[in-house]
Amino acid sequence: METRRRWLSRAAGLASLGTLAGKGHAVAQEGRPFSGARSRAWRRELNEVLRDNILRFWLEKSIDREHGGYYMHFDEAGKRKAENTKAIVTQARTLWLFSRASRNDFDGQGLPAREDLLAAARHGFHFLRDRMWDAEHGGFYWMLDPAAGKVPMPAKHLYGQSFALYALAEYHRASGEQEPLTLADQLVELLESRAYDKTYGGYEEFFERDWKKPPKGTVGYMGPSHRKLMNTHLHLLEAFTTYLDAKDRPHTRGRLEELVQIQSSAVVRKHLGACTDKYERDWTPITDGANGHVSYGHDIENVWLLADANRALGHSSYPLRDLFSALWEYAFAHGYDPAEGGLFYAGEPGAPASNREKSWWVQSEVLVSALTMFALTGRQRFLNVFEQTWDLAKTKLVDRESGEWRARVPDATVSGGDKAHNWKAGYHNGRAMIECMQRLRSLEARV
User: Fold this and answer.
1) Which of 256, 265, 267, 86 is nearest to 162 (CA)?
2) What pLDDT, in 10s, does the model give residues 188-246?
3) Integer Cα distance of 72 and 91 in angstroms
4) 96: helix, coil or strand?
5) What letters, b where the CB count within 10 A reaches 16 and e where it falls short, cover 157-186?
6) Which of 206, 291, 335, 373 could bridge to 296 as Cys pair (CB 3.0-4.6 Å)?
7) 157: Cβ–Cβ under 8 A, 6 or more apart, which residues?
8) How big is the chain by its Cα radius of gyration, in Å?
9) Helix, strand, coil: what percent of the chain each, to 5?
10) Distance between CA 87 and CA 154 in Å, rounded?
11) 34, 374 contact by CB (below 8 A)
């Protein structure tokens, strides 16, 4: 394993590239400086998209009053499709969105009434509590088909449990109701007793409905059942951050601090300056073939979620600034499009992006992470990345006719894709609008 000195040397080497792997990959170091006027203009645009494009779409289209929960299948034109399966990941994400928007601590203007947002959140909470929670074994089912009265995917994956915890904690913060926090407490106790890995740290991820471990070699909902994923632990980090915001206690702090360690060290390929996703139980990386590909969006999302976890813990993020810079420099060098803005999807280690799709969720995370880095470092290039990627998002991803965001930037070979499905809701982009508005307000206070 590399020493920390060699890692820092590698990070410094990446940073010193400046033009990042050749002139064609340069991100401008100079540009229009930050000002209150520019920031307020961006906040107006972000607010408009959150209000008129994202929240309006989900409030008007998603409430399923017949079967409960949220409709989650809409085509490219925003029309509801026949399928009505409901997955814990996006049901919880939508509950989170309505709850978070209702708190409006980001100076949102003209948003839907708080009472309407809370009513939509309450509707989703009741569905999670009454239909998606496994009353016999605890935890949340992966997927329901409520119209057919079936549970086609009843097993438990911590990726889904993490979003349930995230949503329950946020709904408690928004509503002040005790019941969602009590259910969150039950879920955390279950994760501790069934999934926490006392030997190697972090969490084992895939379980049968009754929380028994499946035989090794079983393929779960997100790959081989015995693996640990950077992606799952990223969202556990996110969930425990909000849970700590809702209820500060020593155990939660301890688990969140451990997740910070995992996301800032165990999942980082230190010789590369990037993360990979798949691990054996003891955190041995699995990097053969596609398993070793780098997902640029997850890496830069990791940056700002680590910073937010440190905020909740009362810790400074400056000790992680070298890591944050290394992750961003790698993404710049291999995944950033300097001509049009935005990050491509993924690529082989040390090579240019092989998957050059510009996904809605990746660009959403670019926006938040770039502003986080600008606030942390004061480097103009991060403000330039925010501006360029926001220009891309508002012109190529935001659908002002049908509502919501396209799944990807369309071009001559691919369409924009469905507006929503069991992996796409208003969470990444809605959250990005909120987080960016908050960060810009904080930056304005420094001017």
Assistant:
1) 256
2) 999 999 999 999 999 999 999 999 999 989 999 999 999 999 999 999 999 999 999 99
3) 8
4) helix
5) bbbbbbbbbbbbbbbbbbbeeeebbebbbe
6) 335
7) 142, 205, 206, 207, 220, 221, 222, 232
8) 21
9) 55, 10, 35
10) 10
11) yes
Average pLDDT over residues 37-45: 98
Phi, psi of 42 (to 5 degrees): -65, -40
Which of 363, 287, 254, 379 lies closest to 324 in space, CA to CA? 379
Q: What is the 3-state secondary structure (H, E, C) of 302-360?
A: HHHHHHHHHHHHCCCCHHHHHHHHHHHHHHHHHHECCCCCCECCEECCCCCCCECCCEH
Q: What is the pLDDT of residues 104-155, one digit of tens each?
A: 999 999 999 999 999 999 999 999 999 999 999 999 999 999 999 999 999 9
Distance from C-alpha of 86 to C-alpha of 146, rounded to nearest angstrom = 8
Tell me the residue type at 19. T
The one-letter code for the residue type at 285 is P
Q: Which residue has the tokens 């035989």?
A: 215
Q: Tokens standing for 358?
A: 């510009």
| Residue among 309, 289, 168, 291 at smallest CA distance from 230 | 291
Distance separating alpha carbons of residues 393 and 337, to the nearest angstrom? 13
Q: Alpha-carbon distance 274 to 373, whole Å?
A: 16
Reduce the DSSP state of residue 117 to 3 states and report it: helix
For the chain, the structural domain boundaries read 4-446
Question: Within a 10 A sphere around the Cβ of 441, how many other Cβ atoms?
Answer: 15
Give me the phi and psi of 398, to 5 degrees please.
-70, 120
pTM exceeding 0.85: yes
Domain 4-446, CATH class in plain words: mainly alpha
Question: Tokens 């330039």 identify what position?
Answer: 384
Q: With contact defined as beta carbons under 8 Å apart, do 380 and 35 qualify?
A: no
